[in-house]
């Protein structure tokens, strides 16, 4: 069997974009050219790669096998290029990370600084996004790693490392509940809350905990910005729910306090370093993953006692 790898790219882009027309826009070709290349690829493989009769591209089992081969080959090329660059002492390459809003702060900055100082020739891209989009970016190989809270399980995404961290109530030091040793979900349900939007995993965990306790949480303020959530806690007496390390500077200054929430769902929370299952990584990417494991994930375990 002789398969033309260039044609697999047309199949990959059509599948990734959802249609041949969308892929044609990306590749700057006519949709008929995309269709013709995929038809020739099917002739080369001797089997159908796309389910017929659908407006949106759906792959057959054979189509998925071809895409898996293509992505494995692209990863291998990336690894080879990095190894050759390392051998030539060029120390060049690229790294892409997706990260949740909750991880932005001094610990993440120090992690990036350590990587940049070790690999000054590496270009780096960081996307701040919600967990749902992060999974999609990983599956499409648009980022190498994702850092997320308790992501929903996906068969093609694996956790390389994880660290335990609870979600806690964050409130002004002057709030009437600031001296409590813990709060219940019922306590939260009776307070004015400022929370992440529903697409963020932190918010989904809070909603799940409320449902399991027979409650419904209705925040009066929502945002994808932790800076805004903490502002609402300081200035307006609202309570937010976050990992303590996301507001470590404010906790250290005494402006805000962290109070444990006495519900198992918010105690058994983990931060994960995610990657696509089966993807191989160049040496500099494994180094980045190791820095995240050693510096960022342990920093999540901020004491609030």
Description:
- The chain is α/β, with parallel strands linked by helices and 305 residues long.
- Residues 300-305 have low confidence and may be disordered.
- It is 46% helix and 17% strand.
- It is elongated, with a radius of gyration of 23 Å.
- The strands form 3 sheets. Strands 2-1-3-10-4 form a 5-stranded mixed β-sheet, sandwiched between helices. A 3-stranded antiparallel β-sheet has the order 8-5-9.
Outline the biggest β-sheet: 5 strands, mixed
Instruction: Give the N-to-C terminal Cα separation.
Output: 64 Å
Strand content: 15-25%
CATH architecture of the largest domain: 3-Layer(aba) Sandwich
Q: Gyration radius, to the nearest Å?
A: 23 Å
Low-confidence stretches: 300-305
- For CATH, the homologous superfamily of the largest domain is named as Periplasmic binding protein-like II
Strands, count: 10
Total helical elements: 12
Mean pLDDT metric: 86
H/E series: HHHHEHEHEEEHEHEHEHEHEH
Shape: elongated
The domain tally reads: 3
- Helix share of residues? 40-55%
The secondary-structure class comes to alpha/beta
What do we call the CATH topology of the largest domain? Answer: D-Maltodextrin-Binding Protein, domain 2
CATH class (first level) name of the largest domain:
Alpha Beta
- For the largest sheet, list the strands in their spatial order: 2-1-3-10-4
Protein name: LysR family transcriptional regulator
Domain HTH lysR-type: 16-60
Organism: Paenirhodobacter huangdaonensis
GO molecular function: DNA binding; DNA-binding transcription factor activity
């Amino acid at each position: 069997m002789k398969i033309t790898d260039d044609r697999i790219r047309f199949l990959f882009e059509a599948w990734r974009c959802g249609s041949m027309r969308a892929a044609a826009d990306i590749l700057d070709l006519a949709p008929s050219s995309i269709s013709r290349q995929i038809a020739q690829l099917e002739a080369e493989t001797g089997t159908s790669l796309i389910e017929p009769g659908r407006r949106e591209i759906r792959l057959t089992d054979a189509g998925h096998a071809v895409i898996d081969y293509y992505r494995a080959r692209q990863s291998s090329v990336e690894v080879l290029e990095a190894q050759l660059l390392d051998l030539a002492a060029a120390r060049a390459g690229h790294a892409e990370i997706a990260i949740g809003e909750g991880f932005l702060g001094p610990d993440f900055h120090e992690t990036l600084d350590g990587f940049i100082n070790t690999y000054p020739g590496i270009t780096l891209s960081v996307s701040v996004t919600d967990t749902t989009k992060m999974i999609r970016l990983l599956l499409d190989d648009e980022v190498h790693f994702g850092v997320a809270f308790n992501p929903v399980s996906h068969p093609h995404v694996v956790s390389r490392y994880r660290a335990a961290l609870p979600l806690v109530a964050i409130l002004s030091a002057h709030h009437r509940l600031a001296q409590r040793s813990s709060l219940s979900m019922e306590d939260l349900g009776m307070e004015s809350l400022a929370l992440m939007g529903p697409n963020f995993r932190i918010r989904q965990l809070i909603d799940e905990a409320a449902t399991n306790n027979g409650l419904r949480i209705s925040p009066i303020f929502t945002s994808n910005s932790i800076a805004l959530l903490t502002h609402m806690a300081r200035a307006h007496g609202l309570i937010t729910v976050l990992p303590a390390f996301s507001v470590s500077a404010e906790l250290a200054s005494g402006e805000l306090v962290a109070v444990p929430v006495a519900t198992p769902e918010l105690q058994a929370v983990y931060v994960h370093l995610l990657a696509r299952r089966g993807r191989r990584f160049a040496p500099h990417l494994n180094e980045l993953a190791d820095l995240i494991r050693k510096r960022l994930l342990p920093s999540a375990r901020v004491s609030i006692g």
